[in-house]
């Protein structure tokens, strides 16, 4: 329920996520809360690509538009992610 509210406020059209987590691999998600990996801070709303689906999601953020930095995140809870599918 919390996720669907976020979707509405966001204006992003909801896309039905695949049931099998392994099918999220290679797809894009948006973070629903602030995160950090010990070194780097990743703000809520960051678009990331799913690299692995073992023990939660392993993610790589899209590169920062100003400096080109990308951040890796491991073991992210699926409930902290909004499924986006393929980026246009
Ligand atoms: Zn930057």
Secondary-structure blueprint of this entry?
Elements: H1 2-10, E1 28-31, E2 35-36, E3 41-42, E4 47-52, E5 57-61, E6 72-76, E7 81-85
Antiparallel strand pairs: 1-4, 1-7, 2-3, 4-5, 5-6
Brief description of this entry?
The chain is 10% helix and 33% strand. It has one helix spanning 2-10; strands at residues 28-31, 35-36, 41-42, 47-52, 57-61, 72-76, 81-85.
Keywords summarizing the entry:
disordered N terminus, SH3 type barrels, 88 residues, mainly beta, 1 helix, binds zinc ion, globular, five-stranded antiparallel sheet, 33% strand
The total strand number stands at 7
- Helical content stands at 10-25%
Q: How many structural domains are formed by the residues?
A: 1
Named at the architecture level, the CATH assignment is Roll
The helix-strand sequence is HEEEEEEE
Largest sheet: 5 strands, antiparallel
First-residue to last-residue Cα separation = 27 Å
As a whole number of angstroms, the C-alpha radius of gyration is 12 Å
* Percent strand: 25-35%
Number of helices: 1
Mean pLDDT: 89
The geometry reads as globular
The chain-level structural class is mainly beta
Explain the overall architecture.
Strand 4 and strand 5 form a beta hairpin. The strands form two sheets. This protein has a five-stranded antiparallel β-sheet with strand order 6-5-4-1-7, with no helix packed on it. It starts with a helix and ends with a strand. 10% of the residues lie in helices and 33% in strands. It has one helix at 2-10; strands at 28-31, 35-36, 41-42, 47-52, 57-61, 72-76, 81-85. The protein has one domain (2-85): SH3 type barrels (Roll). Residues 64, 66-67, 69 line the site of zinc ion.
């Amino acid at each position: 329920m919390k996720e669907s509210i976020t979707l509405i406020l966001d204006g992003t059209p909801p896309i039905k996520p695949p049931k099998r987590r392994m099918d999220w691999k290679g797809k894009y998600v948006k973070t629903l809360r602030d995160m950090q990996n010990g070194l780097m801070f990743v703000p809520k709303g960051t678009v990331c690509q799913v690299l692995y689906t073992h023990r939660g999601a392993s993610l790589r953020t899209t590169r920062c538009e100003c400096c080109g930095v990308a951040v890796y995140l491991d073991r992210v809870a699926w409930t902290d992610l909004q499924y986006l599918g393929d980026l246009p």
